[in-house]
Amino acid sequence: MVGQLSTLKPTLTVLEATGGYEFEAACALQAAGLAVAVVNPRTARDFGRAMGALAKTDALDAKMLAAFVRVLHQHPERERFAKPLADAVLQRLQALGLRRRQFVQMVTSERQRMRISHVVAGPSIERVIEFLKTELGDCDANVAAHVQRPHAELAAALASGPGIGAASMAVLLAELPELGKLDRRRVAAPSSRPTTWARHERCLGAARQSRPSYPSPVDADSEPSGSAAAAPDRVDPIAGGVGISCAWLKHPVCIARIYGDQDRATHAAHRPEQEGRFRAPVRAAGPDRLAGGAADDPRLPRAAWRQLRAERERDAGARRGRTGEGAEGSLRPAARRHGEGIHQGVRVAAQGLTMTGLSPISQWLHIDWMLGVALAWLAIGAAGVLMLHRLALVAHLLFPLGGLAGLALFGLSLDALHSAPEVAVLPVGLPSLPFHLRLDSLSAYFLMVIGAASAGISVFAAGYFRKGEGTPPGLLCLEYHVFLASMVGVVLADDAYAFMVMWETMALSSYFLVTANHRIPEVRGAGYLYITMARVGAIAILLCFGVLQANTGDYTFDNMRAQSLSPFWASAGFLLALFGFGAKAGILPLHVWLPEAHPAAPSPVSALMSGVMLNTAIYGMLRVAFDLLHVQIWWWGALLLALGLATALYGVVFAAVQTDMKRLLAYSSIENMGLLFVGMGLGLIFFGYGMQPMAALALTAMLYHVASHAFFKSLLFLGTGSVLHATSERSLGKLGGLIRTMPWVGWLMLLGVLASAGLPPLGGFVSEWLLLQSFLFSPGLPVPLLTMLIPVVAALIALVAALAGYTMVKFFGVIFLGQPREDKLSQAHDAGRFERTGMVWLVAGCIALGLLPVQFIGLLDPVTRQLVGAGLAEQVAASGWLLAPSSLEQASYGPVIFLLGILASFALAFVLVRVLYHGRLRRSLPWACGFPWGTARMQDTAEGFGQPIRQIFEPFFLMRRDLPTPFDEWPRYRVTVEDHFWRWLYLPIAALAQYLARLASLMQQGRISVYLLYSFVTLVATLLAVMR
User: In the Cβ-directed half-sphere of 386, how many Cα atoms lie within 13 Å?
Assistant: First the structure.
């Protein structure tokens, strides 16, 4: 093979990594004078997908690699990818270093064996230890001699640094042969060099697997195919690595700085308990930067650790005498920028313990600033505890500060949407599983929505909360801001442990917010129902992560992306995720907590839960279905489509018949969650059949609706809060005519109602119009059944949109129009300045989403490209201000033109009235058709408005009617509408739980002897099970 390739004289040869077996071939090719680069198989596969090659055969792989070679060969930094392998001298040094580490590990193992062995075996173990020490001494002598002979000058430079001995120099020279050969520019540039140590350990059959010793052109921190370690992030096929790999020595010492011209080094010692795979600390000084990569950390023997600690203290004392610094310095988490890829590589903010403290603010990444925002929210909550009962300070100082933090998160996320992915590892969590965080386009978009909505809600909350809410204002402030910070943590989490911790924190904090008025029994019942559904959903999500990690024991999302599950297990993981996240989103039949929790919670909390928290469930489904799972099956999308459609129709029908304004909005949230699942399901169907542009259109509509729903639903809940405070009424039957006494709230809520009804030129129309446009591409599907059913689904979506408009007319008309139905409504007061400011911000969001769809789709483009590899930005930008997702001839929408048409119609009507009627006006009651003697009792009520819906969709409801008799002095008519799922599903489950509890109570005899018998039987059964 080498001879044949030599005759062809290729300019560059690319090999796929195969776990180390390709090393000999690479060496032989390089010995023949050929340029060689070895790539990760996942990188090659991603490149093939990007080029449209979805099938996988040997012939197609060869063609794909040939195209990949041409891309690498044309790259301006080609030499960085095709570096020469180690020479014979370097290979000898690497072998000596490996052998020395093996001796250290064997000595450690024998010492541990002595502690648990019988005294008879002690002398034998001691002789083995003495022999190993002798061999270790000989190995040290060979290492020292080898270091001094060919590398004397460089060894002397390294020895000048404190704490660098012969063994450390050997590892540095073996793993970083670039030392002393790079200028400042090359040192500061992103680079990646894998370690040789891990390759030799793999060849010897060690349990861990790592990288081979040659340079890989991409994804330096990734593993070969079949490795159990974490997989690389999905980056540009020709993006550079994320930094220079920093090999760990016999003790966990990492080189923290390397100056290209001075060859000086300092070290940072880490605790021996921290083992496993994590990113090393990264330090930067001016233009000279070294990026620390990932490496394996063997456990340090206690004696060696004590020796290292003593050496470090002596070195620190010497430095203290020269510089006046303390021995330990500042041990704080550090966040550093490094390793940006050539095009769109991963940027890493490595969180670790360092000797010089936090980096300058000018070097912080977006993810560092976002963590700062989350910490600011936690600090604001802690400050609320210090001001527990001081309502004025908590409301007028802390909540506006929280709104400013949300605004900062919005700006940071907006800037991060088009940036490279950023990852970080926080030194918190379990010893072997710290918090992994990742900021990519998908998480940046949802953080942008969280920041934008929370800014308006927090400012509104500054004027909303009153005394007597049931919870002290300072404690309410803590729960509120912990809720916000936990949602940021959920979206940034990059491993199952961090995700579940943040998910549970979000659920618990929102539970305490829902039960703020805990003295009311109905509120406590709603809180218990909510937390029960949250627990059930969390268990399903945890099981989903257990399936996705594929028995590897690595719960990072990188590892889950690397797994290739069978269709059965992939489907099992998807269904568990659907159940868990569907319970949070309120998907049928897991929706029952939503209509109970929203009316019980304070209005700002209801706005956060409906407009913001529900979106975290959508984020979780997108992350699992399109990112963590390696395959997308079309029937997953069909299932989401069916569940979403049923949920949307069920929610809007129940919303149309509600008489409680907060329950009406809760059912409206269920309807909108159903629409989001419809868009996600359609995207999965298209993506499952390789129709990426159509999948991008469906996901664009869904993501657009995420932002639109966050704005208009938050606005509507805040408006109901203002109405509730002004009137102390939630029942629609006791409201009316409030637009006269509450004009600010009335006009602002009118815009929210129009957006929720999906009317142009507001944001709700754009998202629903894009969703209907995506259904137009369904005839291209290869399955005739789907081709036949999807147009029916589109017609039902149009029905849902029409019923939503009907419901919003009822909502606004009954509350704000007509005459007041109660005398006390004439004394209602308008919203305060804080409340108006928050609502105006949300109205601005609704208007901006409606008038700037082309620009907003440009923001969504990186998200859809990350999920399905396609976007709409270029296509819609070519049409200017007209929104045309497919082509101008097929369908287009001009929001500005539509707005100008509406304004022109109003102006024309005004002119015609003035000209034809000479300015004469007759004012009358519009709801009474001009009848001048109308009263409030003659107006249409909420029950009367919903009666046609109750008649048409009667099978949906469980209704009880209380009808008056002819003999009633004060006749009353009452209709109660309940949910069938309570009787069909939840009441039987509750009865079964009570039955099992009664059976379990039979074991409670109240005698200690019986309980001891239970313990004895359990112990015997456990021993029998273990002995088998």
Answer: 8
Residue 293 and residue 223 in contact, taking contact as beta carbons nearer than 8 Å: no
Q: Which of 27-31, 300-304, 622-626 has the lowest mean pLDDT?
A: 300-304
Name the amino acid, one letter, at 915: V
Say if residues 881 and 854 touch (Cβ distance below 8 Å): yes
Q: What is the mean pLDDT of the chain?
A: 76
Tokens encoding 183: 């200028």
Percent share of the chain, pLDDT over 90: 26
In this predicted model, what pLDDT tens digit does every residue of 787-846 receive, in sequence order? 778 788 888 998 999 999 999 999 998 898 878 888 888 888 888 889 999 999 999 999
Both tokens of residue 32?
């023949």
Rg (CA), the chain: 33
Number of Cβ within a 10 Å radius of residue 914: 11
Tell me how far apart the alpha carbons of residues 853 and 701 are, in angstroms, rounded to a whole number.
11
What does the alpha-carbon distance between residue 706 and residue 700 come to, in Å, rounded to a whole number? Answer: 10
Instruction: Report the sign of the C-alpha dihedral through residues 312, 313, 314, 317, in that order.
Output: positive
Alpha helices in 917-965 (DSSP H): 942-952
Q: At 779, which helix (H) or strand (E)?
A: none
Q: Which amino acid is at 89?
A: V
- pTM (2 decimals)? 0.67
Contacts of 477 (CB under 8 A, 6+ apart): 380, 381, 383, 384, 385, 387, 394, 398, 399
Backbone φ and ψ for 979, nearest 5 degrees, come out as: -95, 130
The predicted model gives 843-858 an average pLDDT of 91
Assign residue 63 a region (left: φ > 0; alpha: ψ between -120 and 50; beta: otherwise). alpha
Q: Is 575 helix (H, G, I), strand (E, B) or coil?
A: helix
Is 551 a residue whose pLDDT tops 90? no
Phi, psi of 253 (to 5 degrees): -115, 130
CA dist., res. 445 & res. 616, Å (int): 11
How many residues are there in the chain? 1028
